[in-house]
Amino acid sequence: MKFNLISFILDKLGSKRNKVLAAVIFAGITNGMVMLVINDVAKDFNEINFVNLLFFALCISGFMYARRFSEYNTQASVQSAISERHLAIIDKLRKSSLSQYEKIGKMSVISNLLDNSQIIYESSRILVHVSTAGVMLIFCFGYIAWLSTIAFWMCAVVLTIGIFTYKKAQRQVVELYHEYQAKDAEFYNALNHFLDGFKELKISRERSNDIYLNEFTANLHESVALKLRSEKKVVTNTTFIQCLFYVLMACVVFLLPQLDEAEPSVLMSITAVVLFMSGAIGLLVEAMPLVMKADIALGNLDKMESRINQAMECEQLNRPGHFNDFSSIRLSDLTYNYLDETKNKMFSIGPVDLTLKRGEIIFLVGGNGSGKTTLLKNICGLYSASSGSIHIDDRVLQNDSYDDFRNLFSIVLTDFHLFEKLYGLKNYDEKSINDLIARMKIEDKTYFKDGRFSNLDLSTGQRKRIALIVSLLEDKPIMVFDEVAADQDPEFREEYYRVILPELKKQNKTIILVSHDDRYFDMADTLIKLEYGKIASITRQDHE
Ligand SMILES: Nc1ncnc2c1ncn2[C@@H]1O[C@H](COP(=O)(O)OP(=O)(O)OP(=O)(O)O)[C@@H](O)[C@H]1O
């Protein structure tokens, strides 16, 4: 087992590390000294020893202060480290490529960030207690060694056996815990489908029963069985340690008097010390599984972060100001492959050779699955090409300028998302947004006030109109619309194809859209037909 948690906490404590370590050691020693005082007082109960009383009070106060200091500072450092790590992961994620993000998956990010962080936070507090108890135990061993060498060796032998056996058994627990976590990931996956497909489940009792019985119930039974097996091992381990401790007690009480010729009062003191140690040993035994889980949680976070790092490597950031405008964008021999886990091609587009000019309307048409959306994602730099190149005027798009290139576009894809606020937009006035809402004929459904739309619980077609408004507000040189007219009534389709698109063209926008509305194909300056991922035809239509 790697002690990830300990090194994580020591690292995060930063400049406070030495003070916190000193406080933990101080708390452990003062805790042990309390036992010394009690032992001394136990020699004579007849009169109050005020020196001992004062010493006792000092030890307790010192212990409380040091423990509070170490616990608070550790918690504060770990909490802020976890928050920073969350921010760092989110920051890296937003800089990752879309294709890699799609592979990592939403639920994996959510479960990693929430579950693992909670375990780490909880365990860090326990670890401070455990460390204090550990110091106290060392102090007690020192005291036992001072009282009787034989007693010390007894403790050392019993403890060594305990540690080795415990560590060996713990390895099996870790393996089981990993299996349990894999099952848990399956559960999260099913939960993702359950939440996203709530309507589909609600409408079909068979589907709902199937997922409930064969995914959730079966999955949970298996994961509970794994957890119970791992808990059983943990309980066996902890019981073993407790037993070992009683063996030590038996050795001290029965064997030590036969081997050591020390005074009965000394033997009594040793017995008292061993009894005093039992609380700390109990704490250690209870805390070890939690610390193990925190070690695994930190490993999980590291794994996810390194996957995100790899995703970032595919996407080198960021040289702002590279592309502000363009006259033409040319795709040259561009291909893109969807690969499965074993790097086999699942679907490919290209090679594509295509020139898109400033101020033209381009229609991408073709059957379902012909690759229109995939080509769109390549055109606007959401996917980076598997081979070939994109030329912006006479410059070739390089890896480090994708971020800048994407900034030329505003997009409404079929799986678009509406944000509650107009993030990234500053200079807008509410009246012009409400005018656009009226123009889209949804003024009786929503309005824009105080930086947000009053209502986004709208029909699919209405939500698309809001997405279109946001896209217009972004005012980018290239606008990408993936089947925006689908789900719209004939009146709005007419407005979209015959009025809005020509207006945008007049503003010198380049519009690239996917359409199945052949009634309006005449509106395209360039009509590109895709078949099986390849361009089947390019038709230029003159509108002069
Ligand atoms: N993330 C993905 N991983 C693997 N294959 C994918 C992925 N997304 C799409 N595909 C596959 O790529 C092919 C093209 O999909 P795409 O969405 O580009 O087609 P489309 O022409 O836009 O279809 P539609 O008109 O139905 O929207 C499909 O066969 C699809 O199964």
Automatic annotation (TrEMBL):
Membrane-traversing stretches: 20-38, 50-66, 126-144, 150-166, 239-259, 265-285
Origin: domain of life: Bacteria
ABC transporter domain mapped to chain residues: 329-544
UniProt xrefs under Pfam families: ABC_tran
All residue ranges annotated as the ABC transmembrane type-1 domain in the record: 21-293
Signal peptide per UniProt: none
Predominant subcellular localization, coarse grouping: membrane
One GO CC annotation: ATP-binding cassette (ABC) transporter complex
Protein name: Cyclic peptide export ABC transporter
